[in-house]
């Protein structure tokens, strides 16, 4: 891998380290009374390690809900670990969510509850509102994702058909002193969307959730879910707690790590190499359009860093790729005939770009030149959203494996 790309990868991964983040913010807590820890999300395990290093003997119990770890886990103190599934919930998720409910209900009122939240928490804490079932939740979630529903709207629905989301977990908790530390995988850091905001007031309503189903043509996907939401609109089910609800008064303002940390880390690397990077964040553009846009910014800047969560729509069965692979290839093709050297680097901080084993890609002019000599189908790969096989043939993929965290994606382009 190109030396600059190696440095970018190393510093971005450091910036996204959830263990160091949770440890640092535990140091900011005003005192260290006996503490109960609840960690939920893809980064729950490293975040727990960080908190346990800092709080040590002050931790009474730790409950951790996470996705399958890449290796065996050892904690500093006794920890109850539940492994669940993502993005679609299974029986393991129901068990983990039920245990979480029991946990917060059992807390003494004087307890301090430390909550560590990260991406994936919405799926991991799946507990259907009766009489809905796991199958109801799964089929609606799956169909909404396939229809291109964004995470904000998807979670409006989840918050109104489940028991723990949208501030409800705070409402059910017995603790009167709750601190929340968040690793954000949501563009804009909407706390009511991250993990579906279990400790955050919710401004959405049953009517909003019903509108999401209607907009995406999903009203008939589950008659039970549609009927439940319609009953909610009529006041037959309790709404999520809203801003100002007294049940959430015990929850302090959260600490947040987000995509800006990755963007800043990339910019720092470039500045060390005497570049003056142009930076942007919160992009949710179509991936190929983002790549082209970023490449054209080199007409005015010597380097570009764009963070966010680009998307790929219109994927057909059999295609394999991801937003960061597609953005990288689109950028490289835009730069192909420039009369200067350049580098394209893209990275998904969770180590998984789309349904592939790659985290992103690194492409140079030499890579394109060699691939052209082999007559690889660049344009077809972009048009068919099938970038992974092509980039694998070019030996341009970044493969880190799951990183245990997620603060979205970073695209870096440099004119050298």
Q: Could you explain how this protein is built, in words?
A:
By secondary structure, the chain is α/β, with parallel strands linked by helices. It has 2 domains: 17-257, Rossmann fold (3-Layer(aba) Sandwich), CATH 3.40.50; 259-415, glycerate kinase, domain 1 (3-Layer(aba) Sandwich). The chain has helices spanning 3-15, 18-26, 44-55, 91-106, 121-124, 134-146, 151-161, 168-172, 206-215, 223-233, 259-272, 287-296, 323-335, 365-373, 378-383, 387-393, and strands spanning 35-40, 59-66, 80-83, 112-118, 177-183, 255-257, 278-283, 303-308, 342-348, 360-363, 397-398, 409-415. A 6-stranded parallel beta sheet has the order 3-2-1-4-5-6, sandwiched between helices. A 6-stranded mixed beta sheet has the order 7-8-12-9-10-11, sandwiched between helices. Helix 12 (287-296) links the parallel strand 7 (278-283) and strand 8 (303-308). The mean pLDDT is 93.
**Can you say what the CATH homologous superfamily of the largest domain is?**
Glycerate kinase, MOFRL-like N-terminal domain
Backbone CA Rg: 22 Å
- Helical fraction equals 25-40%
Please count the beta strands (DSSP E, at least 2 residues each). Answer: 12
Low-confidence stretches: none
Strand content: 15-25%
Count of separate DSSP helical elements: 16
Order of the strands making up the biggest sheet:
3-2-1-4-5-6
**CATH architecture annotation of the largest domain:** 3-Layer(aba) Sandwich
């Amino acid at each position: 891998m190109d030396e600059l790309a190696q440095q970018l990868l190393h510093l971005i991964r450091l910036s996204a380290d959830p263990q160091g983040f949770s440890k640092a913010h535990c140091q900011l807590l005003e005192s260290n009374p006996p503490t109960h820890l609840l960690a939920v999300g893809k980064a729950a395990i490293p975040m727990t390690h960080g908190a346990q290093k800092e709080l040590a003997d002050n931790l009474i119990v730790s409950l951790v809900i996470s996705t399958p770890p890449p290796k065996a886990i050892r904690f500093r103190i006794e920890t109850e670990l539940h492994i669940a599934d993502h993005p679609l919930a299974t029986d393991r998720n129901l068990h983990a969510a039920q245990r979480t409910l029991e946990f917060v209900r059992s807390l003494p009122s004087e307890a301090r509850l430390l909550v560590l939240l990260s991406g994936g928490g919405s799926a991991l804490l799946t507990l259907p509102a009766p009489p809905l079932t796991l199958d109801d939740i799964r089929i609606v979630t799956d169909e909404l994702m396939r229809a291109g529903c964004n995470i904000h709207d998807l979670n409006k629905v989840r918050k109104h058909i489940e028991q723990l989301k949208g501030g409800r977990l705070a409402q059910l908790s017995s603790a009167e002193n709750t601190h929340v530390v968040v690793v954000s995988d949501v563009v804009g850091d909407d706390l009511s969307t991250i993990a579906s905001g279990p400790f955050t007031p919710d401004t959405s309503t049953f009517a909003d959730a019903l509108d999401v189903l209607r907009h995406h043509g999903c009203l008939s996907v589950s008659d039970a879910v549609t009927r439940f939401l319609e009953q909610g609109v009529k006041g037959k089910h309790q709404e999520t707690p809203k801003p100002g609800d007294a049940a959430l008064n015990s929850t302090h303002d959260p600490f947040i790590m987000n995509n800006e940390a990755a963007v800043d880390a990339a910019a720092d690397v470039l500045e060390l190499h005497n570049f003056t990077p142009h930076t942007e964040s919160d992009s949710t553009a179509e991936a190929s359009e983002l790549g082209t846009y970023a490449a054209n910014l080199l007409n005015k800047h010597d380097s570009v860093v764009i963070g966010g969560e680009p998307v790929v729509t219109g994927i057909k069965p059999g295609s394999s790729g991801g937003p960061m692979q597609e953005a990288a290839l689109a950028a490289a093709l835009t730069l192909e005939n420039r009369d200067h050297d350049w580098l394209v680097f893209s990275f998904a901080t969770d180590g998984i770009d789309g349904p592939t084993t790659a985290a992103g890609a690194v492409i140079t002019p030499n890579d394109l030149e060699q691939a052209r000599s082999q007559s690889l189908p660049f344009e077809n790969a972009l048009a068919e959203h099938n970038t992974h096989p092509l980039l694998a043939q070019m030996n341009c993929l970044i493969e880190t494996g799951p990183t245990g965290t997620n603060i979205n994606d970073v695209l870096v382009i440099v004119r050298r």
